[in-house]
Amino acid sequence: MEIILDVKEFKGKKKAHNYLKKVLKFPDYYGKNLDALYDCLGEIGEETLITVPKAIQEKGYLGEYGKTMLQVFLDAAEENEALKVQIK
After folding, report:
1. Please, are residues 79 and 33 in contact by the beta-carbon 8 Å criterion?
2. Distance CA 23, CA 30 (A)
3. Which residue among 1, 15, 17, 64 is buried most deeply as judged by most CB within 10 Å?
4. Mean pLDDT per 10-residue run, the chain (88 residues)?
């Protein structure tokens, strides 16, 4: 499976987490924070490539929170063999 995330959905933490829950089909108990994101990415069981827009770390999107979120994606991919992440 390949998922390309839409940068327009990353204007605010709440909007970003709601979007990620929907597009990545996270369970209802998804906590909508970076720890929960890491946990749910770790549970992905089928081969998945997620393309994350580098721009989420810019002002006007998520800024510093976006930088941390990018690292969460990369860390989760390092731990989960089924998950591949590319930052574009």
Report:
1. no
2. 13
3. 17
4. 98 98 97 98 97 97 98 98 98
